[in-house]
Amino acid sequence: MLSAGQIEYMLGLMYSAASLKKQMDEGAVFILACENNEPVGFASYQEIKPFVFKLHKLYVLPSQQGKGTGRFLLDRIMAAIKPVGKATLQLQVNRENKARHFYEKLGFTIIDEIDLDIGNGFFMNDYVMEKKIIP
Ligand SMILES: CC(C)(COP(=O)(O)OP(=O)(O)OC[C@H]1O[C@@H](n2cnc3c(N)ncnc32)[C@H](O)[C@@H]1OP(=O)(O)O)[C@@H](O)C(=O)NCCC(=O)NCCS
Known about the structure:
The protein has helices spanning 4-15, 17-25, 69-81, 99-105, and strands at residues 29-35, 38-49, 52-60, 87-94, 109-119, 122-133. By secondary structure, it is of the alpha+beta class. It starts with a helix and ends with a strand. Coenzyme A binds at residues 58-60, 65-71, 93, 97-99, 101-102, 105.
């Protein structure tokens, strides 16, 4: 979906130690899924405005995909958000990423399409998806 150049640029932008620390300092919550004490997937989310949460990241090791880990991580996030009340969980997913179908299966719907300029001539061509959390 993305060129090697764009992946490298985005890794620096979003996954350098400094960037991860900044995200945590600014309120992003990271959760790790482990099997036999080995990490197999992770997610991060954050309340971006009152009653609106954003799923920033959700990744499962390729060897572990299709075994319920993605659903487990999302369920944990939704359970953590539930006490807040009538909230929504939003996310962005590349328009060509089949993960979109995973999100649809878990009750998310597409609410927008965006082409986000992330610098250096690169764009994120995403769907914005949303799921309402029923308290
Ligand atoms: C998308 C991702 C997080 C899903 O996690 P996963 O552990 O593979 O998914 P699960 O096993 O929990 O699947 C939950 C359900 O969704 C379905 N599902 C998973 N991927 C699907 C897909 N691509 N298309 C349709 N359904 C899918 C499963 O069949 C399962 O349904 P079931 O419960 O009825 O059997 C994982 O595949 C991944 O890490 N992909 C690469 C990274 C990525 O693109 N992340 C999203 C960035 S926005």
